[in-house]
Structures are given as C-alpha cells and as structure tokens.
Input
Amino acid sequence: MFVDILSDFWASTGFAIMEYGQLIMLLISFGLLYLALAKGFEPLLLIPIAFGMLLANLPGADLMKEPIVEIIQDPNTGELVSQTKEVGGLLYYLYQGVKLGIYPPLIFLGVGAMTDFGPLIANPKSILLGAAAQFGIFATFIGAILLNSSGLVAFTAKEAASIAIIGGADGPTALYLTSKLAPQLLGPIAVAAYSYMALVPIIQPPIMKALTTKEEREIVMNQLRVVSKKEKVIFPIMVTVVVSLLLPSAASLVGMLMLGNLFKESLLADRLSETAQNELMNIVTIFLGITVGATANAQTFLSTKTLSIIALGLVAFSIGTASGVIFGKIMCKLSGGKINPLIGSAGVSAVPMAARVSQKVGQEANPRNFLLMHAMGPNVAGVIGSAIAAGMLLNFFGG
Amino acid sequence: MGEQISLLDALLVTLVSMVAVFVILILISSLINGLRMISGDKKKTEEAVAEVKPAKNTVEIVPVPEVVKEDNEELVAVIASVVAMHLGLNIPDINIKSIKRVQQNSNPWSSTSKAEQLRGRLY
Output
C-alpha cells in the first residue's frame, strides 16, 4: 500500500516523465540564466527569456499547453457553439500577445518615447546610412536560401526571411516578423538577436577598423544644427503618414514608434510618455521575454536549424555593419571628407549601443572626436529602415 | 510566394526590398529638408550657438575699454549657459552680442568683503 502511494507520487512528478530533450533545454536555460545573472549579459531580457524557457520545459507543468475547445450543440437554441473543455497554460495565454503581434509594437511605443530623432532631423543625409546597413538583412536572406542547397538544413522562404531580420539588430522588429512568418523559430531567433545585440561592442569594432583608414576615422564632423520644436513634433506625424501609406504592412511598428515619439516631443503628454517608456515597456518586456523563451522547446531548439540561425545571425550583423561603413566611406568621398565613415556602422539600429561603438572607435583614433550625436542619426534611421525591411518581407511572404 | 524559393527569387526580393528601403528613407530625408523650410529658420540655425545677431533677448555684459579678441569657445559656452539659466530661457533663444571682461576697479579687500556679505545672505 505505502509502496503504491510512493510509486504513484513518483509517477506524477516531473522527474519520472522528463525526456532527454527537456533536460537539455533546462540545462540551456540554466546556462542563459548564468550569463544574465553572473555576467550581466542583457539581464533585462535574458532573465525572462531564460526563465520562460525553464518554465516551458518543466515536464508536467504544461504552462504552454493549448486549451481544448469542443464544438457542441446548444440544447436550447440548437446552434453550434464552442466550449472550453480544458483551459490552457498560463504562458499559452500570455503568448497570444506575441502570436497576434501585439507586444512588439507596444515595445516600439516605449522605444519611440525614449528616442530623440533630433540628430536625424539635423542631418537628414544620415538617414541613407540607416538604409545601407539593411543590406545585412538581405545578404543573410540569400545566405539562408543558399544553405538549403548544401543539404544541411531546409529553410522555407518564410523561415529565411525571419532569420535574416536578425540583421536589423532590432529585437521587437525581429520578433514581430518571426511571429507572423515562422513562429516555431521564435526561441532561437530571439536568443540569437538579443545575444548579438549584447555583443555589438565586440563584433563591430574589428570590421569598422578593417574597412577604414586612420585618416578617415580621425575626421571630426561639424556640430549639428539646433532642431526646432516644430520640426520635432511634425516629424513623427509625417513619417507615420508617409511610411504607412507606402508600406501598410509596416504601419503597426512605425506607427507606434512615432506615437511614442510624439508623446515625448509634444511636451504636453509627459504622463503618457513616462508610462510608455517605463511601466508599459517593463510590463510588456516581462510578458514578451517569458513567452518567447517558452516557445523554445526541445523539438525546435535542439536542431541544426538553431546552429544555422546562430551562424547566420552573426553573418547578418557583420554584413550590416560592413555595408553601413562602406556607404559611410562613399558619403565621405562625396561630401569632400566631411563625414566620418564610422557613423555608418550605427545604421544597424541596436540603439544606442551601435552609436556608442562609433563614438568609441572614433575617439580611439582621435581623442578630440565626438561622433555620438552624429552616429545617433543613422542609428535611429536604422530602426525605421529595419521596420521598412520587415514590412517588405511581410509583403512578400506574409499571408 | 511559395514555401521554397530559388536563388534568383531571393535576389529579386533583395533588389526590390532594398530599393524600397532606400526610396522611402530618401523620401523621408527630403521631407525633413522641406520641414526645415517650413519652420523658417534655414540659415540662422546653421550658425554657431553664440552667434551675434540682434533679437528680443539681447544681453550685454558691462563693457570696458579694453577689447580682447579671443577665440575662447568654452568660455563663451559657459557664459551663454549661465545667462540662459539666469533668464530662464533656452540657449538658442538668447543672443549674446559681446562679452567683455570687467576691469577690477576696487581693491581686493573690498571685493573680499562684498563676497563675504553675499555669502552671509545666502546661508
């Protein structure tokens, strides 16, 4: 009798029903938690992502379980109605915000409220550097398609597009596109995108130095003009209208980004601006992180696809950086040496880390060089650029 | 587009998308230039902050005969920010015509006494 009770209890625990894959996923989540907690590796995102991964892979807890719904005939009216037979897991319901593309635009609302587009408005030419850096996305897209011919992996066009967007160096955009095109890859893509964003200060400088001469890195740029309040207020409205009319599929990302910015620049909606960049942003980050982590299950995560995604993500970042710097060099020549090509690498987004890297590398070459504000122009243009690129990919492969 | 695409299709997607990204961003860039025209301060704003031009908030710090032409941008920036703070205005809203050093007329004893009296009022 006592033995039966014990064996029944043992059978009901997670230990008894754990599979190898789940065990490995738990170990990966511990590894990520270690990186976040002990090494300070993007802790605000990696802690919820890793913990989500931990929760979803605990056997028996069924936190990502889908609800069971049955269609029954209503005894009174005779109509067919749906009835929930078994409710889903907590994370399943929170995940709907990712699946339906709700969280990433809300994050963009907060990002908009924190972003100063002033440097971009002061130097509109720098927007081109934000466009050039998007080459990383499409080079990776081609790379993923080429990998198919190697026979190692088989990415569909939708998967290739989702992997490529890692090169946009923009977490919410990457998650938004992936949730629409290849939700099964959300876990690996989120881990790759956020890991590489944390590694921007390590990935970018060698590429920037290899592609520029010391003289180019030493170029001191003219001080930016002062941008009037009127320009700063009209800018978000103008960008929303132009981008949404030309590319409706990018409207939710760009629209929310610009709404957040309008809250900030109008100076009349401080409370909304504060909420968007603090409370709302933090709440959504928790939900987004934990549910994206929870999508990482053994079947999809422990595959050659994940390794390919991690490799392709690095390629995407590197090519994005290189194309930004090369375009910076072209603009440097055309402007008669007035533009420091180092600001081109900031076009990959990763705000404001990539701009800080431009500043640091510039200052190494010339201690009197202050490139930060100049690099913020391409940096924020990169955010708009990657949202447009995502919109284009959604146009081609969505639906 | 289908599930699997050829390399040629991928190149086509790349070409069309990159052209779209550039066209939209160039359009935004030219609209920003247009915006600058509308806001009406095309030339003025390009000049340095401490530029000389007559305007509503003109502050002139007591002149003395000695004129020292120095290119001391840091000092100008500090004085401009102090004046702006004192007047409760933004730096772009004030125009400093000239900054001239006031000659020390009083002896060090009386200026020390003045400074001490001021400090006494502050605390």
